[in-house]
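ugh finaly. both done.
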Amino acid sequence: MGRIKDDVGIALPAIISTIAQFSVTFVTAAFVGRIGEVELATVSIVQNVLEGFALDVMLGMGSALETLCGQALYNFVKLSLASAIMLCLELWYFTFVLLMVGWLRNPELAVAAISICMNIEIWVLMVGFGFNAAISVRVSN
């Protein structure tokens, strides 16, 4: 039980910081959604495609860095690029779904609805990323 308490103690700050960081884009989408459906669809595409592309690469490389920094391994670039590609493929799936939804009959409403669902789902994923950071710290030590 003590080990779980330690892991949660490590994971909780990471969870809180990632949720707070992601909340900026969520609040932006919420305010833009009050303007109109087309505006919300536009902001959702920008957030998920353009911002997501850059963030996914850095998040993948950073997740490999969490484990490797504690062990001081020489093959950081090889493992971090593999981790970045794996994470990018996983998160780009959501981007592809968002773009495919734009082909439906009422694309403004469909993209706006799917972006709201994806924002809520990503909030849930932030808990997993926090525990990923905690586990990486445990493995590296």
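ok and the 2nd:
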Amino acid sequence: MAASADRTLLLLLLSLLLLITFSTAFETASRNVRIDARPHRTRSRGIAHNALLKFGTKPAKFILCSALNSYAKTQNLQLGLQIHAQIIRTCYEENLFIINALIDMYAKCGSFVDAKKVFYGMK
């Protein structure tokens, strides 16, 4: 019984640590992007995007939504496309929050054709 509680606590702490790590990475990337303000030269690629792919596990849906929101604000279509590919690989294409974030990112980046494709692909 105690071992099960310890294991649950350990998993909870590890999850919290990952959440803090990702949120800190996105916060730092967001700050760097605002300071640099040149979408083609964002430093978020080395911080946040690689952090998403580093662990080899399926990223949480809210992390993908946050990444898409960040790339929409900086109008960084290239990194948004990479997150879209990650969404397809992780089978999150049916999630309405992610679809909404994708449409928003494509529209804010000026890729209205892709935004329209995602919108009409909704189920």
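summary for the 2nd one i guess: The radius of gyration is 16 Å.
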